[in-house]
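Run: sequence + zinc ion -> complex structure.
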Amino acid sequence: MIRFQSVNPSGTEGEAAAYVAQVMREAGCDVELQEIEPGRPNVIARLKGTGGGKTIILNTHMDVVPAGEGWSSDPFTMLRKGDRVYGRGVMDAKGPLAAMMAAIEAIAASGAQLPGDIVLAAVVDEEAASLGARRLPDELHGDLAVIGEATDGSLAIAHRGSIRPVLVAEGVSAHSSTPHLGVNAVSLMARTLVALEDFAEQELTKRIHPLTGQSTLSVTVINGGIKESMIPDRCEALIDRRLIPGEAEDAALREIEQIIAGLPALDGRVRIDRLVPTTGVASATRPDHPMVELASAAIERVYGRKPELTGLTANCDMTHFVKRGIPSVIYGPGDFSVAHKIDEWVTLSELENATRVYASIAVEVAGSYR
Ligand SMILES: [Zn+2]
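>> structure
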């Protein structure tokens, strides 16, 4: 699977999806390919139960982030060294994907007659705008969704989300020898950014979720000015605003608008121009939800200790399952701090643990009646 260069942006998940579909068909699943964009299908594989049971959804994504420079070996050829395997996506998220597939294959091969369905939802585009998870079929229901992202042996029940507004400052260009004849868009943007950072410092640091940490706001891209001797008439800045569970997209945008509106010196020349798509907003599942206890017990059986309940600081597709009213948790092999870096690795023993955990959760859920 590492060989399929499902790099997002630029590649497609098509080859990886065809492989996942074939393996799942051979295991005895009903497989549906849901084309999200040309050559980019979600794979929905269902191991049908005998009827009347609960449905478990195992979800993760087939796309990976670009390899980047500086790898010690070819990022798209999986390399094994002792207990570790290296390659782009071995952990995020082809490791959990392989573990989910192996869990379903093992359950199918065991001949276990479970009343409920086990569904693998391998989606596209998690690393960009989550088009895959957002557009899963409306009729997809489950009693529990397990999202495969690295949690280092813990069980995550919350994650942050984000919105990415692009601010535009429109000034008036002039010769820079006579700056008073123009309006400097870069200066307007500078004032705006200082005000937004003050807000982040004074207000967002107080908004803390016990599992995901605090809300944040950062400027991550800025563009302005075209020539050294021209007063710039346009400046754009991208704001990466990280939301915690409970913070709504609209409210967070309104706050930014209000800060801009509260700066008379900007003279109405700065506005939110557009939103860059993100994975989505934050979400959380109650720690005392019975499905959290079920997943926690499965991890305890495999690791011999109760998992810590944690939250991801990053985005993930869980939000799109929570939106459908499906209780959701995040669990996956590996340490999240290795994700999106060069020489990404995961241990084979963690992949085995994850396979056992997914199989155990799937059997518990699909083995019980509704
Ligand atoms: Zn991921």
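>> summary
Residues 14-159+282-366 form a domain with the Aminopeptidase fold (CATH 3.40.630.10). The helical segments are 14-26, 94-110, 131-134, 185-202, 249-261, 290-303, 318-322, 348-366.
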